[in-house]
Fold:
Amino acid sequence: MDAVLLDQIARLFAREATDDRLRAARAGHNEAGWQALVDAGLPLALASEAHGGLALDPASVMAISRAHGRVGAPWRLSAAMLLHAPDCDPNLWTPALATAKLAGLMDEVLAITLDWTQTRQQFGKPLAKNQAVQHSLAIMAAETAAAGAAANLAALALSNPASAALPVAAAKARASEAAGIVAALAHQLHGAIGVTADHRLHLFTRALWQWRDRAGSEHQHHAVLGAAALAGGSVWALATREAASAATPAAPLPGERFRFPAVAERPAQAALRAEVRGFLAEALAGMAPELRAHSWNGHSPDFSRKLGQRGWLGMTWPKAHGGHDRSALDRLVVIEELLAAGAPVAAHWIADRQTGPLLLKYGTPEQQQAYLPAIARGELYACIGMSEPGAGSDLAALTTRARRVDGGWRISGTKLWTTYAHKAHMMLLLCRTGEGQRHEGLSQLLVPMDSPGLSIRPIIDLMGEHHFNEVHFDDVFVGDGALVGGEGQGWAQVMSELAYERSGPERFLSTLVLLEELVRALGRSAPASAHAPIGRLTAHLMVLRQMARGMAALLEAGEDPALEAAMVKDLGASFEQAIPEVARALCPGDAPASLIATLGATIQIAPMVSLRGGTREILRGIIARGLGVR
Structure:
């Protein structure tokens, strides 16, 4: 994909799509300005070189359509491109190009709304300083990002037309749904001015309303996707049915507000997926679905050791530290399959996901040698010492303190909601080691869980299970070698750590077992009324997977995508909590006992998903800060 070419095309669109032309077009007048696009050869973007065309790759064509939408251009570019490219299937390309145009339109609607809320004064301050407004802007941003990821999904699918129909349907459905949400919130935040012809907002929202139903509304595509998932007996199998590609991840385009690069699954990763599925089919045989629904809380040291033996823990770490030098995308495949199957991952999960990577980044050679190989073998488990009785979402309010003494530190204080502290070998503790305002003077220490003075009180959850704990430190001693990274740098390190915690598939796959059981129980004979609800979840899942893949590529490149991670977590929590509600509505009267039990378990799990790893409100605050309004 030629970024220079795309930048030139975007500039051409911006120059030609003046507000006067947009207003004339919306009023039904001739669409002036088309000749400049013809002169640039854009109608021939899809035509083959043999027919005098540009023969651009699908990602480039989709990027052009997105840029076309970003300026609200009224010219029927996609129709012209297809007219000049008879070899392209309009049943695929028309909804795909509509998806990209919707994504571009939402980019601009968000930009217009951000500008308005930052300049419009209410109650003596900009609208954007109101927390409720910030949260609405965060929702708009996350939906806009999802539409962009949907366009990426469609672009990748078009590279192999034989298997593109369902991914394109999912992409168009997700973008259409996002379009309705973004347009509604934009008008709400603009107030009365936004529904007048004087303001330019309607030049874009009217286009959103039109294009969300072009080439099929979300409701139509949902029905198609749901029927396919029910016929195949699995949403997960449908969502992962894709053509492998050796293409490298596409970099985010210039000017893109959110960094979610398009990433295809490579042949080696497809082979790895098949290997993991084969292993899990044997390892989890006979494990009841209501138990697999507790994947995150399933603590099995034996299973964790088996993963370590297969090289599926510490996958991206250097071999010198017990790792396997594999890519973040390889690891993503393994994590996806573990969670989708409901494997018991709790023992190794925290250590593999975030403690290990943090030690790789900030730890001393001695710390790395002491902990990383054992984590990679599935033999050393960690817990997180962040939240406290008076510092949950407001983490900077923590009071646990470590004071310098001869040879090390003495720790006093209490940590709360510490998952599996009673079975962990060590804690990565965030505490105060110095003075300063809130985020200042914080450091991270490695604390062995058998340290004298450390005590653990169990907290039983609403299911009667014990995985939460309160951990009390009564003058606990740790040596000088316990300090991770720089003294006083704890806040920055924790923010880096949370990007690993918030961005992965565990943020949208922890209730999937219920959806799979529901689809199996309904089967091919499910009533037509079940198709759309199942299809909507399928579309969301496919786009969330694409977002998570983009996140993995960014993390592998050494970037710190805190804003994008917060979006994946927020959208993922909503998806996870929607599954038990859909299951309640569609559960057949003769449902098997296992489905009823899985539904009961998941209903009790669902409230946690919008709390752990950052509450929905905190995440939307992070997104608002990333938008520059907080």
